[in-house]
Amino acid sequence: MNLLAHAYLSFGRPEILVGNMISDFVKGKKKFDYSEGIQKGINLHRQIDAFTDDHPVTKHAKTFLHPAVRLYSGAFVDVIYDHFLANDSAQFAEGELLQQSIATYEVLNNFYDVLPVRLQQMLPYMASQNWLYNYRTLDGIEKSFGGVVRRSLYLSSGNEPFRLFKENYAALQKCYFDFFPDVKAFTIGQLKQA
Known about the structure:
72% helix; globular
């Protein structure tokens, strides 16, 4: 899952949210530098990612992009899932996506001093350009694809995966609707155990 899904699947719990959002920036034993609540969020993020990667629907969704991006197909599917989540009226009633986006930036700013430096540097852009909210638009997804390309080792352009995303939009949307209830139920179960 990508940024919006991890924020959403924190269910309004601030320390879980912070851990969920910083997990990719925290390696190895560095997670023990954080409070117990943030550590739970870091662990939750990793459990969600493993569940997502192993899910048969996600494996199917990756096949639509694999010819263009190979090993990076999972990263692009994560962004695609955020697009469909942002447009899912069962998860966000009118105006709720914007409210949750703003609330997420506020929580991250409240914990600014404990955020990894890379996220501290990214947060002003994330908030001012409202990345979470803009996952709902095709333009926002195209920009997010560009971000995946910039972080990759061998991709030079997001044009081909974006074309494949648009070409297979309905099939990928079906993958999202088949997958998301499972990851939501899984996450609720993990939080009950935490």
